């Protein structure tokens, strides 16, 4: 399998995986909690989320400063 990674300067790729890859992120309530957590962190730190994907057992996002 060939993976493609962004080579853009000034971006950070973030991936978070659930414990034992448990599929808990596909519930509306949990997605709302993730959004709320990111909003809180963005208020405290200066970065922007350029892309964000929520999958059942993990999340991906690209951040820029």
- Which class best fits the helix and strand makeup? alpha+beta
- Can you tell me the CATH topology? Alpha-Beta Plaits
| Counted beta strands | 3
| General shape | flat
Rounded Rg: 13 Å
Q: Mean of residue pLDDT?
A: 84
Oligomer, anyone? single chain
Query: What is the CATH-assigned architecture?
Result: 2-Layer Sandwich
| Residues in helices, as a percent range | 25-40%
Tell me the count of domains: 1
Number of helical regions: 1
Percentage beta strand: 25-35%
The CATH top-level class label: Alpha Beta
Q: What order do the helices and strands follow?
A: EHEE
Low-confidence stretches: none
Q: What kind of sheet is the major sheet? A: 3 strands, antiparallel
CATH homologous superfamily classification: Transposase IS200-like
Spatially, the strands of the biggest sheet line up as 1-3-2
Distance between the termini: 31 Å
């Amino acid at each position: 399998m060939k993976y493609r990674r962004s080579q853009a300067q000034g971006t950070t790729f973030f991936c978070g995986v659930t414990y034992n890859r448990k599929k808990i992120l596909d519930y509306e309530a949990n997605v709302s909690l993730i959004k709320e957590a990111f909003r809180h962190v963005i208020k405290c730190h200066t970065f922007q989320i350029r892309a964000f994907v929520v999958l059942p057992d993990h999340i991906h996002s690209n951040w820029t400063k």
